[in-house]
Design goal:
Blueprint (H helix, E strand, L loop, with lengths): L7 H8 L9 H11 L12 H7 L4 H15 L3 H35 L3 E6 L2 E6 L8 E5 L7 E13 L1 H4 L5 E2 L18 E2 L4 E13 L5 H4 L13 H30 L4 H15 L4 H18 L2 E3 L3 H6 L4 E5 L10 E7 L2 E5 L10 E3 L2 E2 L7 H10 L4 E5 L2 E5 L2 H12 L11 E9 L4 E7 L5 E7 L1 H4 L3 E6 L2 E4 L2 H16 L3 E10 L8 H4 L3 E10 L6 H10 L3 E5 L4 H10 L8 E4 H6 L2 H7 L3 E5 L3 H13 L4 E5 L5 H6 L2 E5 L5 H6 L2 E3 L4 H41 L8 H19 L25 H26 L4 H22 L15 H19 L4 H4 L6 H21 L2
Helix pairs in contact: 3-5, 4-5, 4-9, 5-10, 5-25, 8-9, 8-10, 8-24, 9-24, 9-25, 10-24, 12-13, 15-18, 17-24, 20-21, 24-25, 24-26, 24-27, 25-27, 25-28, 26-27, 26-30, 27-28, 27-30
Length: about 900
Amino acid sequence: MKWYQLDIDEVEKKLQVTIPQGITEEQVQARRKKFGANELDAQKKQSRWLLFLKQFQDFMVLVLLGATLIAGLLGEYVDAIAIMIIVLVNGCIGYFQEQKAEDSLEKIKQLSAPLSNVKRNGKWHKINSRELVAGDIVRIQSGDRIPADIRIVEANSLEIEESALTGESLPVAKIGQAMTETDLDPQDQLNMAFMGTLVTKGQGIGIVTRTGMQTEMGKIASLIMTTKKIMTPLERKLAELGKVLIIVAFLLTALVVILGILQGRPLYHMVLAGVSLAVAAIPEGLPAIVTVALSLGVQRMIKRKAIVRKLSSVETLGSASVICSDKTGTMTENQMTVKKLYLNGEFLHLTGEGYQVNGEILNGDQTVDGDHPNLDAMLRYGILCNQANLKLQDGQYTIDGDPVDGALLVAARKFGLNEAIKAEYQLVKEFPFDSERKRMSVVVEDENGRRFLIVKGAPDVLLPRSSFYLTKDGRKVLDLTGKDKFNQAIERMASDALRIIGIGMRPLQKGELLDDAAFLETEITFIGLYGMIDPPRKEVKPAILACRQAGIKTVMITGDHANTATAIAKELELLPESGRVVSGSELNQLNQQELEKQIEEIYVFARVTPEHKLRIVKAFQSRGHVVAMTGDGVNDAPSIKAADIGISMGISGTDVTKEASSLVLMDDNFATIKAAIDEGRNIYENIRKFIRYLLASNVGEILVMLFAVMLKMPLPLVPVQILWVNLVTDGLPAMALGMDTSEEDVMKRKPRNPREGIFARGLGYKIVSRGILIGLVSLIAFLFAYHNDPDNLTYARTMTFTTLVMAQLIHVFECRSEKSIFARNPFENKYLLFAVLSSVLLLLIVVYWPPLQPIFHTTALGVLDWLIVLVLSLLPTILFAYTKK
């Protein structure tokens, strides 16, 4: 179907849809059933069977299975079967860890998927783009990624960059009319928008013609998306660490085996014991547990309204030292309310809060009536030059569109005007708001055929373009005196923390060309000022204080007037007495070197453009800071990409900004950034906790065997016991540590140095010293039991086995804090309690259940034995409390 050749009514007929109504839910279900989801085929996921078999491809595991096979052939059936079962269970745990990580990442991917603005059953909705079907009416605007192939029906200054499809980087101006040419290539189809391309300017409405693999993008095999797992820097660092640990563990294990053989011990027993020890000692599950810890932390972030798009940002969050945050909507409620109007040289006050239309317009104490000069025109123009809609849901009014536009609609309602007046005018041309232009304008034609331009925007942009202004006595030339009056009003309103929007108009001749916005938006008749407030969010002030205690500087960035920004910053206690406020014009006077010298003193940037943001990020980075930067518009993407942690807005953010970011705020709230940093710090600390636990346990396991061989004693553990210790102490407790909540003082510590090594802050010392102590107390248990009853080696090994397990399970609670085992409530982490109790139960089963005793070479222990075991198991914790650095 050559959609570009069809008129709009023909497209509607072919797709059985009308633009005012959109398609019905029944049509959606039928079309999705026929054509599937609107997505490109991703790379096939690895089958669960292959993922399970992957758990047994480790070299040392294969060697162990080979040795076990030899044991079976030599008649050691019980040991062989027991080892096979333990290896199988270990494989299941590894599989579960990897599957959990994969499922978590898939959920994150779905949550961060782009949204589309779609009309169904006559109402606009935001839905996941993968749910689009042919026939859907979609609205697109600057910053959106085109979600499917679309036949454009309305185009307002719409330009789309199609390099993803055509390779051509220059944006293409789009039209809504049918094209008569035949056999046009996609790049020449000016009334079509194609999946994956990017809206760089303007806005439009279109009808979805093709979805998923039927789109132009779907036809190009080289552009089919594939899923490729990229390791985070921490995972890469730990993978390299794992290789070093494998070599160390292998050498120590080889030393145990060689010493044993030189002492005349049976070759077969020593090889099997050595391989078992290597399998237990090598932390092959470390990368999987790291991924699980990261993904579990990410899940917790989702509950706190933050979606992580790049796992590497989780690590970086803990190092953040500066947060550069937008004011509007992030630090404030994003519920604009007009509180003052400046008109005819006087102030009018409006009552009411938020988007509720109940309220009055007052001149002093008197309610103004419909005869108030120029008020009807000002509020009427505010409705016409507007892209928002006021909706009534469950008795409450909400805004579909920009909050500033919404505030103008609510102000008009308080005067008795509503959006129905739009029907009295024909929209001829629209120039959408642009962050560079800082204004929006429309050309409308009234019932008498008269045309005029209405423009609204930043007063400092509109006043220089204005030649006249309205007074009670009519239109006057805007001279210096008139401009001074407006500027004084602006200063007064800004000092009250009001955001100010100016509005004006210009009559047009019927034949005037309407292509040049810059020309049309001159010789304006300035009408008045709207002063609106966006109150600070209640939770932001405590969040800023918490960030300050954590050594993180908060910087406000806004397009508002400097006085407005200063007032809000002081209310939030963001601006210290010595802190500076710098405007965009002042920023333009500074070169990058000067900005870098002054950046530490600046806390508020006012009247800035998105281009300024990039300079601000680079200036902070040059001073060694790790910078988090927020943004929502398409022009924010470069600064978000340049920041160490790019943060986009989930509600107001464009698709392009979300794609450039590493973190998406589902509620556009500054407090969520603080929560994400808290969680990011906690995830990193949790990873350190289980590295400490795993490695200290593994050091203890190797050393108890090495010490015994060096003393020419019998082996204190048999292979099946070594593997069992690894199974019951490494798996669940290590994972449970990764689910630990953050410590109370996590946001009172300085940001972590990004170049800090894994073993920094004394972690290496703790691992080695605790490992030695665990190995020694286990050996003491063996020597004590063996000395008391030299003929009962099973009893001595049971004492060693039990002491080793209990010492590790006590140690896991100490790993929860850098301070001591008593620093945290041991009952706080329910997952860890469950994991430890499960491990103790499994230990008791192999010690006391007769059918398992011959398999695990254990015997029942008495009360006195347990007393000795518990004293020895607690000894490392007691000694460590007095000997730690």
